[in-house]
Specification:
- The chain is built from eleven helices and 14 strands.
- With about 375 residues, it is an alpha+beta fold.
- An eight-stranded mixed sheet has the order 3-2-14-11-13-9-12-10.
- Helix 4 links the parallel strand 6 and strand 7.
- Helix 3 runs parallel beside helix 4.
- The longest helix is centred in the middle third of the chain and has 17 residues.
Length: about 375
């Protein structure tokens, strides 16, 4: 998502971070015509395969209008030209500082309901550091904002512990933050979070997608599940299902997981894996798959006139997405524009780099060849 101006679509092992200084499979085609000011707007057409007579659930009906968000960014670009990338670049000598900011959306609602507060901070860090690493930047430091009506010190400590864990996973420092106690502003026991990350990359090493050509390969890195986007729709599906967060998630792979555990799985932090891949050469572009899914995020890294062909059977879609789609009667296009569908980061690489990456992928750091770059705008799913 944009870092200069983030549009939040709601719905060496690292050393310990220093103490923070806190101030109290139907094929479909999705085409993305070029819109004003460099933004792309999706026009989606596909076959819906839900239950006859029952309307499928959508992100917009759940309260999140991606098109409205795109229009706001288009208007902001008139006032602040240059925004729109995953991270904002600021020149400093021979380097670019790369900045990103984000929150965790309505996944917080499930944190309140499940009582799982010690991993939501990992999500918070992940959403920003995963954005800035798409430019090839190494994260340097992170700042957080924690706001609540009445400060529960024990609960806040759990949240901050997750933030520290996220910083360690991304090899950056928790430099500071803000704790805001705002009586009457939030419901009892609830809080809000936002975070800000800054990294650095040499100007000659910045990854900007300009060298992407037809025939380049798309490599996907797997997600842990829903990550931190699409929860406004996911919560509607949960309500419709009749299941509680403590019930077992329907799945046929023999693994026992509750609905709450599946939905609250922390967002994967890709920083170390991605930087290692980049060091081998051949990486031309990266897309963090967040709000907008494959459909809106992958084309953001392409030069004009290029699109993507995605091989939808080339990776295993986690059971949580199959459950969401079945219960919500959600069509393919809506799923692919709302959720990450099991791939949280996409790398656009040369054929030679693809062979090396796939050869070196292993159990703890798997990677999949999920598609290729083609002529023509948009994302084509086959």
């Amino acid at each position: 998502m944009s870092a200069d101006r983030l549009l939040h679509l709601l719905p060496a092992p690292a050393a310990a971070c220093p103490a923070a200084r806190r101030r109290s499979p139907h094929p479909l085609c999705v085409r993305l015509p070029q819109a004003a000011a460099g933004m792309r707007r999706a026009s989606v057409a596909c076959c819906s395969f839900g239950t006859a007579g029952e309307a499928g659930m959508t992100y917009k009906a759940a309260g999140v209008d991606i098109d409205a968000g795109t229009e706001l960014v288009r208007r902001i670009k008139r006032m602040a030209p240059g925004i729109g990338g995953f991270g904002g670049l600021f020149p400093l000598g021979d380097d670019f500082l790369v900045a990103g900011t984000d929150g965790v959306g309505t996944k917080l609602k499930l944190a309140f309901e499940t009582g799982i507060h010690d991993t939501i901070g990992i999500d918070l860090v992940a959403m920003s550091v995963n954005d800035i690493v798409t430019s090839g930047a190494k994260p340097l430091f992170f700042l957080d904002y924690f706001a609540t009506s009445k400060l529960d010190v024990d609960l806040a400590e759990k949240v901050i512990k997750g933030i520290v864990d996220g910083c360690q996973q991304s090899d950056c420092v928790l430099l500071g933050g803000e704790t805001a106690e705002m009586p009457g502003f939030y419901a009892e026991g609830e809080y809000d979070l936002s975070g800000f990350a800054v990294g650095v990359v040499k100007k000659e090493n910045v990854i900007d997608g300009k060298n992407i050509v037809e025939g380049d390969i798309l490599i996907g890195l797997p997600s842990s599940g829903v990550h931190s986007n699409g929860f406004s729709l996911a919560r509607r599906v949960l309500d419709k299902s009749g299941l509680s967060l403590g019930d077992q998630l329907p799945r046929n792979d023999g693994i026992s997981t509750t609905v709450g555990e599946a939905l609250m799985a922390p967002t994967v932090i890709y920083v170390k894996q991605v930087l290692e891949i980049i060091s081998g050469g051949g990486v031309k572009g990266l897309a963090h798959i967040t709000g907008g899914g494959f459909t809106d995020n992958i084309p953001r890294v392409f030069p004009s006139g290029l699109g993507a062909k995605i091989f939808t059977g080339s990776w295993e879609v986690p059971p949580v997405f199959k459950w969401l789609q079945q219960v919500g009667n959600i069509d393919d296009a809506e799923m692919l524009r709302t959720f990450n569908m099991g791939i949280g980061m996409v790398l656009v690489v040369s054929k030679e780099a693809a062979d090396r990456i796939l050869k070196n992928s292993h159990g703890s750091d798997p990677a999949y060849r999920i598609g290729e770059v083609i002529q023509g705008e948009g994302v084509h799913y086959i």
